[in-house]
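Instructor's aside before we start: the two examples that follow are unrelated to each other. I chose them only because their records fit on one page, so don't look for a connection. First example below.
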Amino acid sequence: MAEKLEDLNLPMSVVTRIVKESLPEGVAISKEARTGLAKAASVFVLYVTSAATNIVKNNKRKTLTGQDVLEAMKDIEFDKFVGPLTEALENYKHAVSARKSGAGKKKEDSEEMETIEED
């Protein structure tokens, strides 16, 4: 568990990067606004995590999954985000499996290259 309350906050560098990518060109955001967004995002993440944890406990499981988070979003009445989040989760799963299969292929290729026959 977190030792200090500040340990639960999202990293300011990540929040700043997301905010800058989301704003139109030439629009600036003050440090106070970034701090406020970071705190609000942290509270939201904790709220969703708490709701998802309750789902896991009610189902007598110990592992929280992406599906639990999607169900929690419905429970806390953020239904309109479930579609985009489901799509993002699928994209993430595809990227991870592609990365794993790419790493496996590289390993196989290097093993093939290491096999040298001597006369």
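Example two begins here.
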Amino acid sequence: MCSNKLIRLSICRKAYTVLFILLYGLTAHITHAAISNRSKSLGNKSLATTSSTSQARFITQGHTYRAVVGETLTLPCEVENLGSLVLLWRRGVNVLSAKDMKVTQDDRINLVNGYNLEISELEPQDAGDYVCQIVDKVNKDQVHTVEILVPPSVRAVPSSGQITARKGGAVTLECKASGNPVPQVSWMKKSGTGKSLSRIGEGPILTLERVERQQSGVYQCTADNSVGEAATVDMRLDVLYPPDIVTEKSWIHSGEGFEATLVCIVHADPQPTVSWFQNSFPLQPTDRRIMSSRGNRHQLTIRHVMQEDFGNYSCVADNSLGRSKKYMELSGRPGPAEFHSAPWSKSPDSYNLTWKVDSYPPLQEVRLLYRKLMMNETFQQPARWHDVILTPSSRPANEPLTHAMSFTLRGLQSGSVYEAIVQAKNRYGWNEVSDIFQFYTQRSPSDPRVEEMEFVASSTSRNKSHNQISSFRPILLLFPFLLILQLHLHKWH
């Protein structure tokens, strides 16, 4: 009985062991299958997410855009297979839009035709990088760079555009230009008519050394960067200088009972005061003496000239920088003679000389001097003067001022060059000697022609050159032997 009980206990223990092994194996199998299925499920989900993200991509590409200020610019951003992902536009850390919703408060920025970013009324501060971004675990960016082109602008320094300098000093003109790209700056000086002349300088600063009064005027500064129209600003330069006087005539001819006008052109800055003097005595306006000025032109008019009006006059100009004076002579003496005859004579041995002299009183005497010029290849030598004294005839009534005269010179040499001067006298004295007048006599038929003389001279020159070369020919033939002899002597030495 007892032995049967032990046998049954042993069998039970074996059955329990087998059952435990089976249960443990089943549990392990179930646990492994669960873990395997969970891992497989998580792996499939990750692959699905990765597959979904890889399909979202940009169709457009990043680009650099240049636009002029004030225009409208559209930045493209087209995406394929975006799905449920979010698309952002941002500039730096500032978000402009998220998906199809505008975030920025700037009314100039909008989304158009999907996710394209439009910026209207462009301003210089709109320049920079704009990023279109696909928001995911790993963000994808597309960057557009915007460059704003700004037309040039320019301003004068100082803003008044007025510059003052003293004669002989240095002056600097400056203008400041802005724009994008940086403008090129050039300078021009305007003429009195307002038309611009050629360029006189480059860069924002123009320096003028040792300025003269002629450099006063309007200078134009121009800025240009090829965006829109060039910008300009004008600057006025005033050069301060003491008076500078120029007379229209230093010798004025008049007659008693007639009118005389004396003129001074005065340049000065500051504005000068102008005074008139006769023989160092100051003049005051009277009924016969009228003093007037218009711009730089100062005029003294003397009506009904009297004998005491003849003499030396001076025009004196003063300003805070100095004084200037110019002298003139009012005279009743004749004016200088003016020749009116043709320079070529029609005769080989004579010439008809004609001239005119202005004189209010009748001429009393006229002096004519002429001489021949001796010409050769190297120099010209004048002969002695021939002096002819003429008594003028009374002038026509319709010529109250001009005396027309003529005189025929005879016994001249053919094919020669002559020169003449004339001086005239009235009751106030002799006038200034006229300018020298040259004239030419005709060649006689027996004289050699110029062409023939040139041919003879050239032939003589050629023959002379040929003879010189021929005379050196024996020496040229001996030259090689002389050279060899010199070399041998040098070797022996």
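The first helix runs from residue 2 to 55.
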